[in-house]
Amino acid sequence: MNLIEMLFAKKAPEDPEIMRLTESDNDAETALILGILKDNNIPCYAKDKRAGSAARLYTGFSISGSAIYIRRSDKEQAEELLRVIRTPDDETDEDDSTDGETNQ
Question: pLDDT at residue 58 above 90?
Fold first, then answer.
C-alpha cells in the first residue's frame, strides 16, 4: 500500500510509517497547520480526538480538537515548520529592539 492509499484510508496511527505530529484545539489551527504542511509537500491528515467526530456531525465542528498525522520520514521538516508558526511574537521581535530605546 502506498502513502496516498494510507492517507486516504486514514490508517491507524499505530502504522509504523505514520506518526502523530501534534494536536490542535480548534478547526482554524488545524486548517492552518495542514495548509502549511501541504504547501511544503508534506502529506498529512487530521483526525478528530475523542468524541469530536460525533460532535462534528451535529455542530459542524469538533469540540475536542484534532490530532495531525504525517509520515515518519517527514518528521524533522514538519517539526521545524511547527516551530516557526508557533514561535511567540516576543521571540521574533527581540532582534528588532534597540537597546531599550523607545520612540516617543
Answer: no
